[in-house]
Amino acid sequence: MQLIDNYNFAGKKAIVRVDFNVPLHKETKEVTDDTRIRGALPTINKILSDGGSVILMSHMGRPKKNPDPQFSLKQIISKLSENLGGKEIKFVEDCLKAQSEASSLQAGEILLLENLRFYEEEEGKPRVADDASDEEKVAAKAQVKESQQDFIKTLASYADVYVNDAFGTAHRAHASTALIADLFDENNKMFGFLINSELKSMDLVLQSKDTPKTAIMGGAKVSDKIQIISRLLPTMDNLIIGGGMTYTFIKAQGGQIGNSLCEEDKLDLALDILKKAKENNVQVYLPVDAVNADKFDANAKTSVSKTDETPDGWMGLDIADETIALFSKVISESKIVLWNGPMGVFEMDKFSKGTSSVAHALAEATEKGAFTLVGGGDSVAAINKNKLADKVSYVSTGGGAMLEYMEGKQLPGIAAIRGE
Ligand code: AMP
To answer: Which residue has a Cα nearest atom 12 of ligand 1?
Structure first.
């Protein structure tokens, strides 16, 4: 497999799949979080400093037509340029009509293509009317699959080498993230620096022999996290559970959960996880106390109770102080920590303390020498909100991709480069 560190881009045109699917301000349309743009800079800078030129391609949002101006990548040009010291970014308004701009691109120049998802070929999903018959849907799907070949051929024709640095979409078998790799020989396709760092961080968590190793799983549902939890159990020493999924575990063990979130059909699964954790000598930490609310509302009345004694009519929306102390201690004594998912409804101030406390505990553990990996949109948002991004070891740019990789699934964008 080709490695970007060893590759000399001098005189080459590189087409780079980046993930510039960044959030925009509702009114001003300015980029509100440029983490993903900054993530792509090492790769862009390496190509330019070698004496190559860069053709950037990405998706943004979920456009339903071509063009769909609210999802135009034009909107990120000034932020990208700012991150590259004011460098000029050339732009083509149609990703399939960049032949002349690509062929006249000079060493040191950057060309950005318009949103790939303006074309249904990018995702391979046809845009059929809701009332289309099943036969029409099948025919439309076959048609898109066929035209995907022309789509990738056109994109590949712009460049000598393909670099995939879009970790956020690595779990998608899309045209630009996976299929296009087949059109480049083994020596001329590779991961960018961002994907390399993501893979290195996840492999370190999975494979490190340093102990204690702690996984913190939060968020709304057990069902979303069951696979990653099962995969992690044999390698972890501690499993901390927080967030809405807590209550499925508490109810499964006979606790009173009031109106808290609960997946009634996952009670057996919760017991099964606890059993498997015991078999694997994993210490499970569930919240012992909670901040309860009388309704799901930012201005709700609050009270604190034991997690398994939630009063009728109340719902647990955050972990409370005793739990915060317990979780913080376990985290601060760990050598490897993985965190995915908030401890409560952190979007509402009244229920954000638990999640912020966990973010701070990770920072403390990192300072004491632990390797700490944070993934998933909400945990990353909490780290950023607490200004701790540079106080943890690694913040993943891909929530879904990270979960799937750590679940042991094959990611099409990774497999396409590795030749798996
Ligand atoms: P997920 O997408 O599964 O990681 O879940 C994230 C969502 O879970 C966030 O929007 C949180 O507000 C929500 N959440 C966390 N804790 C709770 C809770 N105790 N009750 C209801 N929702 C919660």
So the answer is: 345
- What pLDDT shows up at residue 187? 97
Judge whether 400 counts as a catalytic residue.
Answer: yes
The whole-number average pLDDT for the span 197-224 is: 95
pTM for the model stands at: 0.92
Q: What is the crossing angle of helices 193-207 and 399-406, to 10°? A: 40
* Per-residue pLDDT band at 129 (split at 50, 70, 90): confident
Alpha helix positions (H), 164-266: 193-207, 222-232, 246-252
Domain 4-191 is found in CATH 3.40.50.1260: yes
The one catalytic residue in 108, 231, 377, 391 is 377
Q: What is the pLDDT of residue 54?
A: 98
Q: Which of 124-128, 272-276, 306-310 is least confident? A: 124-128
- Ordered by start, the domain boundaries in the chain are 4-191, 198-406
Catalytic residue among 38, 74, 87, 221: 221
Choices 3.40.50.1260, 3.40.980.10, 3.10.28.10, 3.40.50.300: CATH for 198-406? 3.40.50.1260
Phi, psi at residue 407, to the nearest 5°?
-75, -10
Asked if 387 contacts 151 with a C-beta cutoff of 8 angstroms, the reply is: no
What mean pLDDT, rounded, does the chain reach? 96
How much distance in Å is there from the Cα of 416 to the middle of ligand 1?
Answer: 34
222 in Cβ contact with 216 (< 8 Å) = no
Same fold, 4-191 and 198-406: yes
